[in-house]
Amino acid sequence: MSNAQIQAPWRSPDCLKNSVALQANFPGVFEAMSDIDALGHRLLKRAADDARITNMDALVGLSMLRRSVTHFIGLRHLLEASAVEPAKLVSRAQFETLLAFRYLVHGGQRKVSLYTPSSSRAREARARYFYVAAERRKIYGSQGALDGRWGVRVRRESRGPMKEEISNDIARLQRLFPTQTKAFGPYRCHIPGKKPQYFDQAEWYSFGFRGARKVNSVRALAGRFGWLRDYEFLYDAFSGLMHPRGVTHDGAIANGRLEIFTPYLAEAFPILSTFGCRWQLLIFAFAVKAYHPPSLGDAQAVGQKVSGLLAEVQGGLPAGWS
User: Fold this and answer.
1) Is residue 318 part of a domain?
2) Which of 91, 100, 175, 308 has the most CB atoms within 10 Å of its CB?
3) 3-class DSSP state for residue 227?
4) What's the CA gap between 260 and 1, in Å, rounded?
5) Bridge partners for 260 per DSSP
């Protein structure tokens, strides 16, 4: 087949029309996103090139930085294509990473600034909780599979190796991370006489606060940092699109008739893009502080430019907000 016979993939007319309109109406926003995207790639490369992964702090910190850069790539590309509604889901992930990075670098401090120091020793302790929590989640998943929790029977020849792997992982965590293992407590799928549970009650960040058991959700963590407005205004509202909850994301009743929104509804673009840019710059501020201080000047220059580009952007409440 010749190139002349290859047809371009179908695209929704709303996609093409709205994408052109957004880029024409918000050139400053797209320039800001381009600059932030480029800064993220520079930071990630510099920090990775200079880092010696000899401890959990560097491993977890650079992993979070890579994750945040990846989230922002998705956010930028979706917004450029006027896929604003799906971008809400990326925005939720970005906010969670912001909270996690903020906690990793500064712990449970409620108020921090660019001048607030970050202790590498304290970061190492927090990173170890992060790692142990992930490894325990893997153990719970394997044990759940053995117990038939997923509705699928593990083959007989696989059960022995899986049990051995679980035992080895538990012993390894106990040996290498005794403090964190003790803090999380016994594995709730192995407590005699109790119904097996396949999760820990505490999150990895719970132990950085007084009343640790109460800080075991994204909402609780956001509240401790004074970011409950951001959580309720965007994160929780956008959850209605991700989960089957309500109908306000998808349509509205007008004059007695149901109006279904186009999947390329761009109403939330201003607020989603500006929050996304500012959240990402905060993440980079934490990353520079802890993992590549020489990049401070670069990050400040981009931040100053972006602040000017976003200054005139205004937007109302997005669809689905209540």
Assistant:
1) no
2) 91
3) coil
4) 40
5) 251
**197 and 222: one domain?**
no
Q: Are 179 and 54 within one domain? A: no
Using the 3D structure, point to which of 208, 229, 255 is the last residue of a domain: 208
Boundary (domain end) residue, out of 168, 191, 208? 208
Same domain, 95 and 223: yes
Domain hosting 171: range is: 122-208
The C-alpha angle with vertex 80 and arms to 78 and 86, in degrees rounded to 5, equals 25
Of 133, 137, 139, give the one whose Cα is nearest residue 103. 133
